[in-house]
Design goal:
Layout lengths: L7 E3 L2 E3 L3 E3 L14 H9 L5 E8 L16 H16 L4 E6 L17 E2 L9 E5 L5 E5 L4 E2 L5 H17 L4 E5 L5 H6 L14 H19 L4 E5 L14 H15 L3 E5 L13 H8 L4 E4 L4 H9 L5 E4 L1 H5 L3 H7 L29
Parallel strand pairs: 3-4, 3-14, 4-5, 5-10, 6-9, 10-11, 11-12, 12-13, 13-14
Antiparallel strand pairs: 1-2, 7-8
Length: 365
């Protein structure tokens, strides 16, 4: 019997299986509004137990990649409505990932060319992003110099997430995922190797977690904790993140706080698959003992590894990223033991339909 293909109830939300389509930036929204091609893309993959959408900026300030669809204007809400309707029409469930990149941005993305914001004014050394170029092609550029948010500004960013979450529910999403991984705004506060603030948002573990927890609480109050998830990447090193003394204690403390809040889920990303440091051996067991709610794990899982993780109780749901790019019928392929196609990396961010909605389903003939 396959655990992966069994039904699962995720804090009041029924899923057809335990396969999660992981959030993946695809850079297809030329005008920052979901397109008809995006509707097709998500509809094709709706047999996943749960889809977590690509990161969707909560504001202009939160943007950091070219051609990513936001969730802060009426036009964007209307565009996302077509996506959620298509997914629900296929019997699927979909959460939207809410995104603010913080310092991982460029002035080309910012309102009036202003500096990106962060916990501190330190630039992410050697890191690049994509900015809009000619003919809807993106161009790589180094991150711009950020400025530190003042203490009084931080609640404003929290409210941007609250507004985006309400917009997401209006757009028909089953829930939202707060992106607190990959070196973006929340991790820029959580990480003790970066955050050297002297106010109530810096210093000890409780202070460094404060912004994240305030946002989780405010979003949960607005739309319900059962519709609120969060993605984290313990020991993450992306976007010039560095290790710090109480690193394990920090992530376990966050696990305790998430357990108290009875969220839809915690989505834990192992960045080894992205060429970064792996989560240390034994940490997943410690986190699982600390956090007792629904746990999603992502990190280059195969079907076999996923089944083993579920049987051993390491996780409740397994997220697959790149396999869903080239296999819109991934769940059916898993069920039948059919080959898994390999995606073309050259088409990941081209902005074209090729390598996006033209991957075929498996032909049994």
């Amino acid at each position: 019997m396959s655990e992966l293909l069994n039904v699962y109830t995720m804090n009041e939300i029924s899923l057809n299986n335990r396969v999660v389509m992981a959030p993946m930036t695809r850079s297809r929204a030329y005008n920052l509004v979901p397109t008809d091609s995006m509707v097709t893309y998500y509809r094709q993959r709706a047999t996943a137990g749960l889809i977590v959408s690509e990161g969707s900026p909560v504001s202009m300030e939160g943007r950091g990649q070219a051609y990513t669809p936001g969730i802060y204007t009426d036009e964007q809400i209307e565009g996302w409505k077509k996506v959620t309707k298509a997914v629900h029409g296929q019997g699927g469930k979909i959460f939207i990932q809410l995104w603010h990149v913080g310092r991982s941005s460029h002035i080309a993305h910012q309102p009036d060319g202003q500096a990106p914001v962060s916990s501190v004014s330190r630039i992410a050394e050697g890191c690049t992003t994509h900015i809009p170029g000619d003919n809807y092609q993106s161009v790589r550029a180094f991150h711009s110099q950020p400025r530190a948010l003042t203490t009084d500004e931080i609640p404003r960013v929290t409210q941007d997430f609250v507004k985006a979450a309400k917009n997401a529910i209006e757009a028909g999403f089953d829930g939202i995922e707060i992106h607190a991984a990959n070196g973006y705004i929340f991790e820029q506060f959580i990480n003790g190797g970066l955050n050297d603030r002297k106010d109530r948002y810096g210093g000890n573990i409780a202070n460094r977690l404060r912004f994240t927890l305030e946002t989780v609480d405010a979003v949960s109050a607005a739309i319900g904790s059962h519709r609120t998830g969060i993605r984290i990447a313990p020991f993450g090193r992306l976007q010039d993140m560095h290790g710090f003394d109480d690193e394990e204690d920090t992530w376990l403390a966050l696990g305790i706080e998430m357990r108290r809040r009875q969220l839809a889920y915690v989505h834990l990303s192992d960045q080894e698959s992205l060429g970064a440091q792996a989560i240390p051996a034994g940490f997943l067991t410690k986190f699982r003992e600390t956090y007792e709610g629904t746990l999603i794990i992502a990190g280059s899982y195969t079907q076999e590894r996923a089944e083993l993780a579920l049987r051993e109780g390491i996780a409740d749901l397994i997220a697959f990223g790149r396999p869903f790019i080239a296999n819109p019928d991934l769940v059916k392929r898993m069920k039948n033991g059919w080959p898994i196609a390999v995606p073309d990396k050259n088409t990941f961010y081209t902005g074209q339909d090729g390598g996006y909605i033209d991957y075929p389903t498996y032909n049994v003939d």
